[in-house]
Amino acid sequence: MKRLYVVAIAAACLLAACSSHQNSEQDHSADAHDHHGELGQKLIQYTDTYELYAEAAPFVVGQTTAVLAHFTCLADFKPLQDAAVSASLNVGGQTVEAKAEAVSPGIYRLPVKAIKAGEGVLTFHITTGNDANELLVPVKVFADEHDAHHSLEEEEAPSTAVGFTKEQSWKIDFATALPQHKPFGQLIKATARVEALPAQTHTLTAQTSGVVQFVSAGIVAGSTVSAGQQLFTISGTGMGDDNAALVYQTAEGDYELAKAGYDRMKQLADKQIVSQKEFLQSQNSFEKAKAKYENLKQNFNTEGQSVRASKTGVLEKVWVKNGQHVAAGEPLATLASYGKVQLVAGVQQKYSALLSKISSVAFYCSNPGWRNLDELNGKLLSVGKRAQDNNFLLPVYFEADNSGEFIPGSYVELNMTTASEKEEVVVPVSALVEQQGNFFVFVQLNPELFEKRQVVPGSSNGYETAIAKGLNADERIVTKGAVMLKLASASSTLDPHAGHVH
Prior knowledge:
Layout: H1 2-23, H2 26-31, E1 41-46, E2 50-56, E3 59-60, E4 64-73, E5 78-79, E6 84-91, E7 94-99, E8 101-104, E9 107-113, E10 118-128, E11 131-142, H3 145-151, E12 161-163, H4 166-170, E13 175-177, E14 180-183, E15 187-196, E16 201-205, E17 210-214, E18 224-225, E19 230-235, H5 244-270, H6 276-299, E20 300-301, E21 304-308, E22 313-318, E23 325-326, E24 331-336, E25 340-347, E26 358-364, E27 370-372, E28 379-383, E29 394-401, E30 411-418, E31 423-428, E32 433-435, E33 438-446, E34 449-460, E35 464-469, E36 477-480, H7 482-491
Helix pairs in contact: 1-7, 5-6
């Protein structure tokens, strides 16, 4: 409760600051326009790069109309800056030009003088560096003020509308977008255990019997080791049978003896003092002794077996204690890499027929929250055909990259969405606000006016929610900053002539 109180105070301060900013800009309001007592028009256009929201009195032949244009960069929904802006009005092939004056970041005033009545196109030209963009808006130029007055009708804003100026939205994390209209199947919720991938784990085993000696005190579970690093020594000193040190010393002696004999026989064979058969027998004995010695030399020395890390990774588990006697084949330690992990989800058996139709998967990570499987370069590995013994749930195996999101051995929430042929209106979960158990979205009436509308949410995959009722796919909504609009709606009453007043 204390945290919500602090958030509410911060939001109120932000809204008060925005209101103060509005009051400080009354100077260009006088030169531009005031919505009270005057019929105006709002010009709205979107490209892949910019949002245009312009306000102007009706265009009348022979009169100069002040157009107040607001440009928002859609990449971050912040105001356009450091740009050259101009406009051209074309009616029936006749064009007039207008150069913009920068009022404040993102806001430009353009004096446009119409010279011909009729349907036309007002084109805004934006140049930033070497990049040039155009926004085309259809407009109508009237022959006189009488026609303009009777042709434009002021629309009453709904009682649930909330005014939120461009300056306010530019100050917060804000965005709008059209809902997606796409197939959205059933949601399956589950939990998944984070494990190392089987292919990324390796168990080091004793190749001989003996007593295990740890190379250092740092050989403990969780420590990071490098490929080739020595971890243990298995010594058979003092033991009669399976004495690794004795086997190694014997193999080394046999190798040295066979090598000396081979070198001598080779010299005699070169002088044809011994037969070819005797030389080949000596060579064969030497190669056998060498192969045995070289094989033992990789993992053994005069102290016994030397156990080294097969790869760089983390010691997931150490199975033995220092000084413990082990037999050949017993596990010593398990080495794992966590750059990729396996997530094993347990799913209720009632969903068994749907598991073959999984279309999207999202995991809830402690940081940064819900992540899509595709974002983690992941994939579905397999769906178990047999229930687990301990909980009777069906196992579903996934693979995903891990850059710190997952802690092996822990559990994470999992949302699976199945494929569906039925298309639904889908919005980001950040677009929904809750109030007393009901859910709302803010539908954009214009870039500074939003309708608070109740909707009925359907299934959700954690980062997207289907809207069962209350929203159409062609209605632009607030996708970021909806909570701030909720606070604004609770702290102010909308002017019936609501719009943009600087």
